[in-house]
Design a protein that fits this description.
single chain; 247 residues; mainly alpha; 11 helices; 0% strand; globular
Length: 247
């Protein structure tokens, strides 16, 4: 298999899964689609919780001390949220979704909002998480695409359910998968193994909390600019390194 095979497979499964969702979506009642979306929200919450528990990872505690991991995650989300808000990441992702909607489909304002919501939520769900980061980097390092192939299977089912609820915007999220995972794979090829276990644990825990925000949106509990928190994924390993150097 060539380097990038996992990402290519993931893109294909998202397109195929969302295509099946579009085909059967009109046969599902609003109640069924809402229930399925809520179920995905619960599963996303479970995955997010598992990731967030990386804050108690032994490698992280050994590197920065027992009390620092929580502060690193908190600092990452606060600083990342400020940076993301200043960069207006949520608005820019929504604008990208609107641009793609204009190229791929036609519809009224309600249709555009549905497209953008599907694009944003799907992009966040498919592109945030340990499998995305670990799988892409590991493939770039030449360790195989097993993790991304597992993620591809999970994303196919998620795309089917999302597309039944949100429409073709979910299919457009394949662009996000290609760009983000492809970039991470290239980073792995160029830089090699650049994240120690402690730094990766901090990043994973921070990503888990961001995913909780996505789950809250899916469960209709609270809507906020989750994408504005994305810079926290870069800041987490940086803060971890600063604490390690300060010890």
């Amino acid at each position: 298999m060539f380097v990038g095979f996992g990402t290519v497979t993931n893109v294909v499964t998202v397109v195929v899964g969302s295509g099946l969702g579009l085909l059967i979506g009109h046969r599902l009642s609003l109640h069924v689609r809402t229930t399925v979306t809520s179920a995905l929200g619960l599963v996303t919450l479970l995955i997010a919780a598992q990731s967030a528990f990386a804050v108690s990872d032994e490698a992280l505690s050994d590197a920065v001390g027992d009390s620092a991991p929580m502060l690193i995650v908190l600092g990452s989300l606060v600083v990342g949220g400020i940076v993301g808000s200043l960069l207006r990441l949520e608005e820019r992702i929504e604008a990208l979704g609107g641009w793609l909607q204009g190229r791929l489909t036609r519809g009224d304002a309600a249709g555009r909002d549905r497209f953008v919501e599907g694009f944003v939520i799907s992009s966040l769900v498919f592109c945030i998480g340990p499998l995305t980061i670990l799988g892409s980097i590991n493939e770039g390092l030449g360790n195989g695409a097993d993790q991304l192939l597992l993620k591809s299977t999970l994303d196919a089912f998620a795309a089917l359910a999302f597309a039944a609820s949100f429409g073709i915007g979910v299919m457009a999220s394949a662009v996000s998968v290609a760009v983000i995972q492809g970039s991470l794979t290239l980073l792995g090829v160029l830089l090699g193994s650049f994240l120690p276990d402690a730094h990766l644990a901090a990043l994973t825990a921070t990503g888990g909390l961001i995913l909780i925000g996505v789950a809250m949106r899916l469960l209709d509990l609270k809507t906020f600019a989750v994408a504005d928190l994305l810079p926290a994924l870069v800041i987490a390993p940086v803060l971890c390194q600063l604490v390690v150097l300060a010890r």
